[in-house]
Amino acid sequence: MAATVLVVEDERKLRDFIRSYLERAGFTVLSTGSGAEAITMVTAAEPDLMVLDLGLPDVPGETVARELRAISAIPILILTAKAAEEDRIRGLELGADDYVTKPFSPRELVLRVQAILRRGGPAAAQQGVASYGGGAMVIDEPRRTVTMNGTPAQLTPTEWGILVTLATVPGRVYSRFELINKVRGYEFEGYERTIDSHVKNLRRKIEDDPGSPHIILTVLGGGYRLGLTRDE
Asked: What pLDDT does 146 receive?
């Protein structure tokens, strides 16, 4: 079954242009120019991914992303005319999985949509169930779920990819560049700080006290490693 992508872009010509390329790539596409309607459509239609323009006329894209992150783990690809690093980082801190800066190549957009969806697809779920830290964390790859002390954590595809990568070899240090390329599934020419934003969001969801992280540890000058050992 084809994945469904919701395109949220107020400029009609650009919205139709994006829709055309995504449909040509085999996706089912829903579209709207309204941020408020986008929130309703995510709840009603449950699309597999949302392409979200930040410059919407009714509800700012940042607000749409923030509200959706409170109720859904839908992957979000942000479209933005802001090219500054800080603007991109702020978008990722809202819980977005990736961003594309306008003007952009439609082929690149399609490739990024495909890459995001692959992170949560069957290829990422072949290992089985594993527990860490005496059962404190349980990762079920076939079902693509993680529970912390018995409580499910709702992760985005990027957050899931980071956690599963770190859990592959607990204690091993993964550099930011390595995590970017492993998680995104394609050569990413961007800022390594994007990983910091995703790790920050991930810590909020899986650690009791994000101010004193003990599950995902920062290695100065190195990157990140999992602070829990795998149970036998």
From this structure: 92
